[in-house]
Design brief:
This protein has 283 residues and is mainly alpha-helical. Helices cover 56% and strands 4% of the residues. α1 crosses α9, α2 crosses α12 and α5 runs antiparallel to α7. The longest helix has 29 residues.
């Protein structure tokens, strides 16, 4: 997603945090940060810097052309073939790093003897970075074209018309559908668009949010599930009727907007659920 998509994902998640997760998030945010949503774009701000270059492939997954399927072992690697270097691997990795903090947190209050050991163990990670990366990547994995085909770089090489302008298809899903909706329906206010999606979470999607939140086998996060949904939505909605040179306008916009809003909702609900599990009160 672009900046608005990430902001909305985190704005949707924030009110769904449990008290203990909200407290942990507050503790991990830099002192000058207003809230999580204000920093959810941070991984995009830094990914072009030399020292953060390694994080660039962590924003997406390339899947085999026209397969419309995803498999972690086959697809989750960077262009050098290093396994785990994709958005699903990143979500697993940063979830594990934050779990280390959870233990440190509970040990600190209950067992002073373990404090030094657990502090040492987790000090090799910057947990503020881990939180910001996790919040960002749970957003990105829900953008259908972030789990797109290899040959077109997730729609980046497919040039189309968006009403009277020219963009690549990836950018249309990152930014332009949201921009058009924002101007057309939401008074150009991201807060209004977030409120509308939030209301849909409570009404239209009320009976499925617990399915969205859950993972099998007691996993804290299940990015493979989110990735399969994304490539399927990419095939069914994003790539469909959007071959190079197509003119995309109201037909495409009106039919895809509900899909995009559902993906933002799922990202927000799942980010909150993941953080709530990571920072669950020690029982
Ligand atoms: N950081 C942040 N907000 C920013 C930039 C950085 O919260 N706008 C955090 C993320 C890292 C830490 O500060 O944990 C160090 O980042 P940097 O190397 O960019 O100073
Ligand atoms: N991207 C993607 N799949 C790729 C390459 C890039 O989903 N194979 C995403 C990352 C950014 C956007 O596309 O959100 C533009 O990438 P870049 O700035 O690297 O061209
Ligand atoms: Zn993108
Ligand atoms: Zn990103």
């Amino acid at each position: 997603w672009g900046a608005d998509g990430h902001r909305m994902t985190c704005l949707l998640a924030q009110p769904l945090l449990s008290p203990s997760a909200a407290k942990a998030v507050k503790n991990l945010l830099p002192n000058d940060a207003h809230d999580l949503a204000s920093l959810c774009t941070w991984p995009d701000d830094i990914r072009h810097q030399w020292k953060w270059h390694w994080s660039s492939p962590l924003h997406f997954i390339d899947t085999p052309d026209f397969l419309c399927g995803y498999n972690y072992d086959r697809d989750c690697h960077n262009s050098q073939g290093e396994s785990g270097m994709c958005v699903a691997g990143a979500i697993n990795n940063y979830t594990s790093q934050l779990l280390a903090y959870r233990h440190q947190f509970s040990f600190k209050s209950s067992d002073p003897n373990l404090q030094l050991l657990t502090t040492d163990e987790s000090s090799s990670y910057n947990l503020t970075e881990a939180l910001l990366f996790l919040a960002h990547f749970v957003g990105d994995i829900h953008q259908p074209l972030h789990v797109g085909f290899t040959g077109d770089a997730g729609g980046n090489t497919i040039l189309v018309h968006w009403y009277r302008r020219k963009y690549n298809l990836h950018h249309i899903w990152d930014d332009e559908i949201i921009n058009t909706a924002k101007e057309k329906y939401y008074d150009s206010e991201i807060s209004m668009m977030t409120k509308a999606i939030s209301k849909n979470i409570d009404v239209q999607w009320n009976n499925v949010t617990s399915e969205w939140s859950g993972c099998e086998n007691g996993e804290i996060a299940c990015p493979d599930t989110y990735a399969v949904e994304s490539i399927q939505a990419a095939c069914k909605w994003a790539y469909k009727n959007a071959s190079p040179g197509s003119v995309l306008e109201d037909d495409y916009f009106l039919s895809r907007l509900p899909i995009l809003e559902k993906r933002l909702a799922q990202g927000g609900v799942r980010l909150a659920a993941i953080l709530n599990r990571i920072f669950a009160e020690a029982s």
